[in-house]
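Researcher: Next sequence.
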Amino acid sequence: MDNYITGATIKRLREEKALTQDELSQKIFVSNKTVSKWENGHGLPDISLLEPLAKALDISVIELFSGNEVRNQNRSFNMKKVLFYTCPVCGNVIQTTGQAVISCCGITLPPLEAEENDDEHAFTIQTVEDEYFVSLDHPMTKDHYISFIAAVYDNGVEFIKLYPESAAQARFKISRAKFFVAYCNHHGLFKVDTKKK
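Model: Next structure:
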């Protein structure tokens, strides 16, 4: 585990919930002196207390570790707010439809920020009958490659996983496609709108 909950984080989250040290201590069955010690950096909560502590602070354990409370405002399921996360250790790709705290291989992952495509990551989009044929003229070596291409529709995501030494291309249904994203393992996420194809 690369990081652990800090006393400063506990104090900030407690104060945001307008709890006193005594009120928090009662919720997790420890003394208020124990909470004070944690907040002053003179100790850390035992791992067995993390779940009750997170519950008392009304957040998840992952949020407790990250120190950030996430309140997903994407209640209407707007696909324009779709987010992608990739794990630098195992290569996992996770997609969400709004804010989330995502953890993989012991790392809290930041959402990928999509950039407009550039010369090195230029999309070629051709219409073939009822499909878009999407390709990138990009190296596909074992060290530098496009990891995935995805089409984001107004009602979902179609995701194509790519592998080194294969072609950086995919086919997607035209109906309802709004934009495409491609992830380069060296340079990040790139995006192109279907209207700009």
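Model: The chain has five helices and twelve strands. The mean pLDDT is 87.
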